[in-house]
Amino acid sequence: MKLLKAKTLKLAVIATAMLMLPSIAALSQTSVKLELYKPGTEIARLNVSSLQADKAATVTVRDEDGAILFTDRTKEDQYIKLISFNKLNEGRYFVDLEQSTGIIRKVVVKDESGLSIKDESLYFQNFIKLADEDRKLFVRFNTNIDQPVTIRIMDSEGHILHEAANINTDNHTRLYNLSMLLHGTYNISLVSGDFVSSRTIHL
């Protein structure tokens, strides 16, 4: 725990395990299919279905250095897009679908033999919910990225009030008591490698 001001009180971790909530399963029910548009081409066809109807999803294509090559947003239940890799250099590319509940990633490889798409999806799913009546913050994540996760709770000025780093598990649940914090805006972030999920809450 990192405290920056004497007035800032410790955040109590009051539970380490709870039942799986239905909301975190929403992203896992989203179907993300990425396949070659036609054999022998360097064009991929992205087909996303069962998106959360009430929340926008962002589709992003990045290279290995993290440079964004394409981005788009949708609120439709289904999203279909042809993505051309014709003019791109050989290397690995990442096609990410991001919603408020996390990220699903597909990996594309372009080499001398053409374009190939990894079958397995990488995912970093999370569920963050504040119970207004008692100011309890529920944080849960599921991941198959095989990288440690860091959870940070920050105030509106970016000061870290709580940090739990190097969490090495594919399934993690915590409940925080925020009742001692002042009224205001706080940011909750979950970071794993280059996967980042953030949420703003108001007390």
Structural summary, described in words:
This protein has 203 residues and is mostly beta strands. It folds into two domains: 12-20 and 127-202, Immunoglobulin-like, CATH 2.60.40.3080; 23-123, Macroglobulin (MG2) domain (Immunoglobulin-like), CATH 2.60.40.1930. The chain has one helix at residues 25-29; strands at residues 12-15, 31-36, 43-49, 57-63, 68-74, 79-84, 91-99, 102-111, 114-117, 122-131, 136-143, 149-155, 160-167, 171-177, 185-192, 195-202. The strands form three sheets. Strands 1, 4, 5, 7, 8, 9, 10, 11 and 14 form a nine-stranded antiparallel β-sheet that branches. The longest helix is centred in the first third of the chain and has 5 residues, at 25-29. The chain is elongated. Residues 1-10 and 14-27 have low confidence and may be disordered.
